[in-house]
Design a protein that fits this description.
With 291 residues, this protein is α+β, with helices and mostly antiparallel strands. It has two domains: 166 residues, no CATH class; 110 residues, Sandwich (Immunoglobulin-like), CATH 2.60.40. The chain is built from five helices and 13 strands.
Length: 291
């Protein structure tokens, strides 16, 4: 019994580590930056994803400081001049796990809403007395706009994808300790979770967010879809070979390695993007060909 508890504890730690990595490295999560002046330093979180239908507030948590903040922005992939806007104080609300967060005042502006998969790039200028600092002027931050995904679709999707990672870790650990019956048992459960979360609910999430069920091979190069397909294929091969017997349990271990390798790629990297000239959504590595 203690052995099996240990397996689940180790698997859970591995899965949580992978989930935290995904959370902190994806291009849709707020970017953490530091602004350093001669007498002070400020840590900021800058917006990189926005749902259509609600105001796109670009907030900088610097209100109350003797600092002027200016944003320069334009649509990504469009030959147009930068729009310059000074951020003004507004009352905002801190995020909280439960209930409402505390009210606070931030420096803010509203950026123009874009169609699904449309993107705005921006950089910031901060001035404190005579000091001027730029943030990401050479490599502007990008905000991608997306449709809202209902919670009853998104929550099960996240649950099954997390379950697939957890079950795959359990499968690999049982292989390492040479418990091949449980290796196969949990390997089959992994396929079920990955199929529901990645191959069924994943496309539904994509449809709500960008109006397309599938933008991976053979119709596109969306990296999120393609890495799900690669991981699922590895698990299907392992299951097919060991379906009637359990001759090659190492394939389940290899499938786990493949899953973690493809999911080490930041979530939403090379994702769907609107081409403003054609009005079409293009994906992944082929994006530079359309500019």
């Amino acid at each position: 019994m203690l052995k099996h508890i240990g397996v689940w504890i180790v698997a859970l730690l591995i899965t949580l580590g992978a989930a935290i990595y995904q959370r902190t490295t994806g291009p849709t999560y707020p970017k953490k930056v530091k602004v350093e002046f001669s007498d002070s330093e400020y840590s900021l979180k800058l917006l990189r994803s926005q749902e259509i239908g609600s105001p796109c507030y670009l907030d900088v948590d610097l209100a109350g400081e003797d600092i002027e903040a200016t944003i320069f922005y334009k649509r990504l992939g469009v030959d147009e001049p930068w729009t310059e806007t000074i951020l003004k104080p507004r009352k905002s609300q801190e995020k909280a796990f439960f209930g409402k967060g505390k009210d606070k005042v931030v420096l803010s502006t509203i950026l123009p809403e874009q169609p699904e998969a449309g993107k705005i790039q921006y950089y910031l200028k901060f001035k404190k007395k005579e000091e001027v600092k730029f943030v990401d002027k050479d490599q502007p931050i990008v905000i991608r706009f997306k449709g809202a995904v209902p919670w009853y679709i998104l929550v099960p999707h996240i649950f099954f994808m997390f379950s697939a990672m957890l079950l795959s870790s359990v499968t690999a650990i049982y292989f390492i300790i040479k418990d091949y019956d449980r290796t196969k048992n949990f390997g089959m459960r992994t396929i079920g979770a990955l199929f529901v979360g990645g191959m069924i609910l994943g496309p539904v999430v994509q449809k709500y967010a960008f109006s397309e069920f599938w933008t991976g091979v053979p119709w596109g190069w969306d990296l999120t879809d393609n890495k799900t397909l690669i991981a699922f294929t590895a698990w299907v091969i392992a299951a097919a070979v060991n379906w009637k017997s359990n001759k090659k349990p190492i394939l389940f271990f290899i499938a786990t390695i493949v899953l973690y390798m493809v999911y080490s790629i930041p979530h939403s990297a090379f994702g769907s993007e609107l081409n403003y000239e054609t009005g079409k959504v293009v994906q992944g590595l082929i994006l530079p060909l359309f500019y």
